[in-house]
Design brief:
Number of strands: 15
Helix content: 10-25%
Low-confidence stretches: none
Mean pLDDT: 92
Structural class: alpha+beta
Number of domains: 3
CATH class of the largest domain: Alpha Beta
CATH architecture of the largest domain: 2-Layer Sandwich
CATH topology of the largest domain: Pseudouridine synthase
Number of helices: 6
Order of helices and strands: EHHEEEEEHEHEEEEEEHEEH
């Protein structure tokens, strides 16, 4: 489908949300994935329209009602009327997108309960933040819109503490590090992010937990929450995460990057109770470390 724009200086996601049968949320996702082209080029959802812009929308964009509940063995470590804390396995996509509308966490959540926040639309019901497909560990899912709105603000203003464990390739020479390097979407590969001068501010704090001959186990705390932030930052400084299929060195197994959301600490948006959770490393991650301990 092709559309000729008749409005000047309006966000392209907003324009298409009101001039097509697709929701703004679905349009935004398609723009981010490079599925929708403007004048033959990929643009950001914030792109401002110009009169006679030619927009090309492929016919195979899935509509939100195609997202079906699926029975799934979810590891729910906490649940009440307003939210859940999920321990996500590596390999599970959080929400539908890029033509993948089955076997995601959202499909499993929709089977588990009918009570999920819909602030982000049907594609992202319950999702207030996300983990990459091959990043394992703790994440919050919202059941009520009020909880979602409050927690979204908490994430925005850095009131949610998230600590990750990662295994880096190479022996990192310092005990701690603060990585302050802006991140934006790659101009040559739309599926990748990279450090760039005109990117968005991104800050990561690193602490060494244990050194091995060829690897380093580290703890990471985010000050910002950019897409692929930890993976991009560590690759940028020359110590990529082990087994990362996108930003690492060489081939990777199906388990993906050794990056785990280990600790989650926040204030409950409704009860105001202090909440803290800690997750065990997944078996492949732990077994690899055990083998390193034995060999060294």
């Amino acid at each position: 489908m092709k559309i000729l724009v008749d409005t000047e200086n309006e966000r392209i996601d907003k324009y298409l949300g009101s001039h097509t049968d697709y929701s703004r949320e679905l349009v935004t996702e398609a723009l981010k994935n490079g599925e929708i082209l403007v004048n033959g080029k990929v643009v950001k959802p914030s792109y401002k329209t110009k009169i006679n812009d030619e927009v090309e929308i492929p016919d195979n964009i899935n509509k939100e009602q195609d997202i079906n509940p699926e029975e799934m063995d979810l590891n729910i470590v906490y649940e009440d009327d307003d939210l859940m804390v999920i321990d996500k396995p590596s390999g599970l996509v959080v929400h539908p997108g890029s033509g993948n509308y089955e076997h995601t966490l959202v499909n499993g959540l929709k089977y588990h309960t009918d009570n999920l926040s819909d602030v982000g639309g049907d594609v992202r019901v319950g999702i207030v933040h996300r983990l990459d497909k091959d990043t394992s560990g703790l994440m919050i899912v919202c059941k009520s819109n009020k909880a979602h709105e409050i927690l979204a603000e908490d994430f925005k203003y850095k009131r949610v503490y998230r600590e990750y464990y990662a295994l880096l390739v190479g022996s990192f020479p310092y005990e701690t590090a603060h990585i302050d390097a802006p991140i934006g979407r790659s101009k040559t590969n739309f599926n990748k992010m990279e450090v760039m001068a005109d990117g968005k501010s991104a800050r990561t704090n690193l602490k060494v937990l244990k050194r091995y001959k060829d690897y380093t186990l580290v703890s990471l705390v985010l000050e910002t929450g950019r897409t692929h932030q930890i993976r991009v930052h560590l690759s940028y400084i020359g110590y990529p995460i082990f087994n990362d299929p996108v930003y690492g060195k060489g081939e990777a197994t199906s388990f993906g990057q050794f990056l785990h959301s280990k600790v989650l600490r926040f204030t409950h948006p409704i009860t105001h109770k202090k909440m803290e959770f800690e997750s065990e490393l997944p078996a492949p991650f732990k077994e690899f470390l055990d083998n390193l301990d034995k060999s060294e």
